[in-house]
Amino acid sequence: MNISKILYQAITNRQIRFSYLTKLGIFNGMSDETFLKLKYKNVFGKKLDLENPKTFNEKLQWLKLYNRKPEYTVMADKYRTKQYISSKIGKEYVVPLLGVWDSPEQIDFEALPNQFVLKCNHNSGTGMCICRDKERLDIPKVIRELNKGLKENYYLNNREWPYKDIPRKVIAEKYLVEKTGDSCLTDYKFFCFGGEPQIVYISKDNAENPTTDFFDMDYNRLDLRMKDPNSEIPPEKPAEFDEMKRIAKVLSEGIPHVRVDFYDISGRLYIGELTFYHNGGFGPVSPKRWERKMGDMIKLPSKA
């Protein structure tokens, strides 16, 4: 994309303009509440109602501001959450950890297996390295990208406060492969409300042309869409579906809303992550009635 096109989009598209200004740090000194109101208006074209929130995304913003428990920071930390999950349901559900470091320069690449995943523990995506063949790995580039990831203040993007105080690390995890041999893992993401899984989202998020399908807990397909289109042929019900529901219920107990993400590797379940604010609380939901319906599923607690 050339510079003139970028400038044109920044001038004409308010969402792109807001995102660009956010990355420049223009809003860094702004309070969380003011920032969220401003971004919500830019994304949805309407005022954020924090006094009487009704929709799914409105309530996610409310939860960011008023439901702040220290354990959420541990649960959002891709390193410390492994111990948290182990204590709740057992270490067999945790993606095996190969190493943890304060900086990428400390990584002993020789000691790592031929395939592995490197990521920062406090963000989502920036700096991640999925290594399928260590012999072809550009190690200096990997180190540069991980350092870029470590410098990212992920909290500032959407004011998802659990990420704000995570002690930043680089972790290496086991490379997972599904029995189909597909390099893109299938995500099973359970939207849980007050300890009850209600909706599951099934997708290959890292596929070239991802599709996403939503189901209720009886595996009835829902006429729900968020970011990606629905598939023409919906995925079959996984054999481990009931076990996923059971685990999601345990991990979401006592939490107004959290998304519990799974991988199914040849019948063995692993927890991918625990996410409190789907798409940062800024993902359009269609049809519109689902925005309100999912909002009704969140029972807001007293302000913390």
Q: What structural keywords apply?
A:
304 residues; alpha+beta; D-amino Acid Aminotransferase, Chain A, domain 1; 3 domains; 5-stranded antiparallel β-sheet; 4-stranded antiparallel β-sheet; 10 helices; 18% strand; globular
Task: Tell me the overall shape.
Answer: globular
Q: Identify low-pLDDT runs.
A: none
Strand content: 15-25%
Secondary structure category? alpha+beta
Query: Largest beta sheet: what is the strand line-up?
Result: 7-6-5-8-9
Secondary-structure element string: HHHHHHEEEHHEEEEHEEH
CATH T-level topology of the largest domain: D-amino Acid Aminotransferase, Chain A, domain 1
CATH architecture of the largest domain: 2-Layer Sandwich
What would the average pLDDT be, to the nearest integer?
93
Count of individual helical segments? 10
Helical fraction:
25-40%
Major sheet description: 5 strands, antiparallel
What is the terminal separation in angstroms? 45 Å
Query: How many β strands by DSSP?
Result: 9
Radius of gyration: 20 Å
